[in-house]
Amino acid sequence: MMPDPTRTEADEDLLPYPAPPVVHYAEQALLGALLLVPERLKTIGPLEPEHFANTAHSALFAAMRTVSPPAPEVHRTSPVWPNQLLDAAQPQARALTASYLHTLISVCPTDAHAPAYAQMVRSGHARRVLRRHAGLLAQAARAPGPDPAEAVLTRSDELATHLDELVTAFPSHPGSMPRTPAARRPTAEPSAEAEDDERMLLATVTAHPDELLRMRWLHEGDFTNPLHAALFTSLTALALSGAPVDPITLLWEAQQTGLLRDGPGPAEILDLLTCPVGAPEHWGQKVLQRALLRQAVAVADRIAALTADEATTVHQLVIGSRRTLSALSAVRRRWHEATGSLPRTPPPRRPAVSRPSPVTSVRPAARAGPGPRAPARPGR
User: Among candidates 344, 207, 338, which has minimal Cα distance to 278?
Assistant: First the structure.
């Protein structure tokens, strides 16, 4: 197997080559078909150089789109087409050699299946781009800037737009639900800042219970500390029933609901409710924003898990990703309600990508290359 041009010399000295993914062989087969029969370029449907995972393959396909192929009778008797492609692609991919072009020809089962190989290449690209969108969403949530919620919502919209584009490019099929099992949802990791924000929220809401009735956008599941979540539920129950709300009534409610049975003592709960500062809405928004970021990370992790399962088709990825993204949409609706901001207008959709032409039964052209050889990657 020839070296991968994306590796450095240090990588080659220290690491063994991993087995190439299936899409690598599809890229080889497609390029081999186009080397054999340049006219197949008209039958493979919409395809761009960036759809190829291998940089050398991408450069070669870009050359195929810019270099005019020779007349069919010239192509059958002379290697003009491969030589022209090699000259055009080598400045961007020094790993390409004449022998590797012969390898591409030899590993292509039949040039008539070029449209099918092109669809495989498109599928591999769609999987990689979806994984990249998930990574950007997780990055926005884990490394927040001045306005973390805005950054997360922007990445979420970009992800949703990409999913819409995939729906038009990849048809549905029976059994479209993803088979990848969902990982157990990680529990929220409490931080000192989160603990302080939740304590301040509980103290200010206890001091101003009327504000709680206007904070229906905050839910128990938004808290990182289970005790704080349970106390918030008790406060909400008292406020909704019209009962008096103060530290003592909340302590009594906590006892009735069993919070004191195996949990903190009365003095600890009363200590949580002392020194209210600021407005409940301010602290509630901070708690909700943190919940929004956590949900974004969970969504990104789930989509990354779907894309890592090679047995999942692109349409299954779309179905599973959309269902996962709906959990984040539910939190963002509450965020818009809490902040008084209007939900953003979704970006305009790009024109639908036409589906590739079906594979037609065409007799394969005679091959002019060497005999069959093992699949290889381009070397330097």
Answer: 207
For 144-168, what is the mean pLDDT? 91
Q: Residue 91, exposed/middle/buried by CB under 10 A (0-12, 13-18, 19+)?
A: exposed
Residue 175, CA distances (Å) to 123, 164, 309, 314 in order: 17, 19, 16, 12
| Cα 335 versus chain centre, distance | 22
**DSSP conformation letters of 87-99:** HHHTTT-TT--HH
pLDDT tens for 298-331 read 999 999 999 998 888 999 999 999 999 999 999 9
Q: Please, what sign has the CA dihedral across residues 52, 54, 57, 59?
A: positive
Whether residue 352 has pLDDT greater than 50: no
| Residue 192, CA atoms < 13 Å, CB-side half-sphere | 0
Cβ burial of 74 (10 Å; 0-12, 13-18, 19+) is exposed
Q: Which of 191, 216, 226, 188 is nearest to 280 (CA)?
A: 216
Is the pTM value of this prediction over 0.70?
Answer: yes
Mean pLDDT value of segment 355-359: 43
Cα–Cα distance measured from residue 247 to residue 245, given in angstroms and rounded to the nearest whole number = 7
Q: Give the Cα separation of 45 and 357 in Å (integer).
A: 6
Residue (of 7, 119, 10, 114) closest to 54 by Cα position: 7
Q: What is the three-class DSSP state of 306? A: helix
Q: Which two tokens stand for residue 61?
A: 């396909």
